[in-house]
Amino acid sequence: MQLEVLYEDEAVLVCYKQAGIPTQSAKLGQQDMVSLVATYRKEKGQETYVGLIQRLDQPVEGLIVFGKTAGDTAVLSRQVQEHKVTKEYYAVVRGVPEEKGELTDWLLRDGRTNTSTVVTEGTKGGKKAKLTYERLQVLEDRSLIRVHLYTGRHHQIRVQLAHGGHPLLGDHKYGTADDKKCYLPVGLCSCHVLFYHPVTGKEMEFQVQPKGKAFQGFSF
Question: Is residue 52 part of a domain?
Fold first, then answer.
């Protein structure tokens, strides 16, 4: 498949990731975003270094940012740690949530099953997770919401919304029984990212519209 590049300069590369493509795979021979970027850079005669700033789950589509040198990657990663990077998502959820809401939970990751669960505060290994959301549209038994992510925990949006009673459409891990046998990719798209250029300090902002089937019927 061909890499979809939205922006590129000497320091950063901003791409669109299709649903179903892993950000980085440990499976031999499986195509992933890191290898696609490395191949793209090699074909352009560039160094093949690929700096991963933040991951997107395999079934999630949308914006993903890479650093082109170790130094650029370190600067961008520090912005993430200092909460200077803004990340927002479109999500299609089951049911009709409140017009606006905030979810704060403690999540525990299970590496054996590659899942996360909501646990009580103080649980060993549990990490705080926070997001806010705004309901944008309602279509029959599902809703389109815009999610603002404050922390970047494993499967955070999927786990928190499911725990809150509104699982994502098509979520095979955390969704309803119908979702677990559904053919749709999960209804989640990284639609908006804002960060500061690692060299110039200039504000960099990017937005995309979702392409997945779960979003059909909603207007953008």
Answer: yes
Model's pTM, two decimal places?
Answer: 0.92
Facing residues of 51 across strands? 67
- The SS3 assignment for 44 reads coil
Instruction: Please tell me the total number of residues recorded for the chain in this structure.
Output: 220
C-beta of residue 206 within 8 angstroms of C-beta of residue 189: no
46 Cβ contact partners less than 8 Å away, ≥ 6 residues apart? 68
Q: CB within 8 A of 8, min separation 6: which ones?
A: 14
Query: What is the CATH number for 44?
Result: 3.30.2350.10
Q: Determine, yes or no, domain membership for 161.
A: yes
Do residues 158 and 57 lie in contact, with contact meaning Cβ atoms separated by under 8 Å? yes
Range of the domain at 116: 4-215
- Residues 156 and 129: beta-carbon distance below 8 Å: yes
Cα 81 to Cα 218: distance, rounded to the nearest angstrom: 34
Angstrom distance (rounded) from CA 176 to CA 178: 5
The tally of CA atoms less than 13 A away on the side-chain side of residue 188 is: 28
Burial class from Cβ neighbours inside 10 Å (0-12, 13-18, 19+) for residue 219 reads exposed
Write out pLDDT tens, residues 97-154. Answer: 999 999 999 999 999 999 999 999 999 999 999 999 999 999 999 999 999 999 989 9
Element spanning 188, H or E: strand 188-196
For 203, the 3-state DSSP assignment is: strand
List, for residues 149-163, the tens digit of each pLDDT value. 999 899 999 999 999
